[in-house]
Amino acid sequence: MTAPDEDLAHADIGLVCALPLEVDEFLKRCDRVRSYTGGDFTFKGGRYDKARIAVVESGAGQVRAARATRALIEAHSPKWVLSIGFAGGLLPEMRVGHIAVADGVVEADHPPLKIDLNMHNDPMHGLFVGTFVTVNQIVRTVVEKSDLAAHSHAIAVDMESHAVGRVCQELGTKFMVVRVLTDDLTEDLPPEVLSILGKTGSVRMGAVLGSLWKRPGSLQDMWKLRERAMTASTKLASFLDGVVTQLYAAEH
Question: Which position has the higher pLDDT, 252 or 108?
Fold first, then answer.
């Protein structure tokens, strides 16, 4: 019988992401990665150098993100939890592939969260630090994103981080947001992006086929989005290399 893997029982750092694609490139850099299903969620864990990593794939949206974060903390008791993945850029100078890190997160129905962060803007190298805004559905058009930026004064938008932060605050776990931009203010997302993701973040094949039937050109748009996301995931993994190393060193 194989002995239980202590690396998966207790983690130094927990990662919460909506989609497997958001974390896959980082996990390729980890050793002894294992996966299991707990309740509605997929968990993965391994070692990044000396740091023990636990990942939960929550699916899209705040409700699932909150439940997944609670499950991650209860199962693996990480010292840090990071909300990671994709985000939309809300500043004109931001571009796809840039990294955004939150020093606070706002959301329409809850008080703002402040994050004590010793990190500074470095736009020349594609790093932006500032407030995130968490919303309940994808913000698809440039007009919608511009309006959101004006009202929230945020630099980036996602659908999970405030919920992750609320649970961390409640349970006394240190919290951080690190995201890579997969869209910006230069173009709209294709309309099909609103319908192809299921509640768990999985692709709804019926919706994909329906989109192709209605607009054959959507195939090219969706393929472009996937290629962009894969490139962004690699950039996020490279940035997480440094973040995980520094967080682990600070705790030890």
Answer: 108
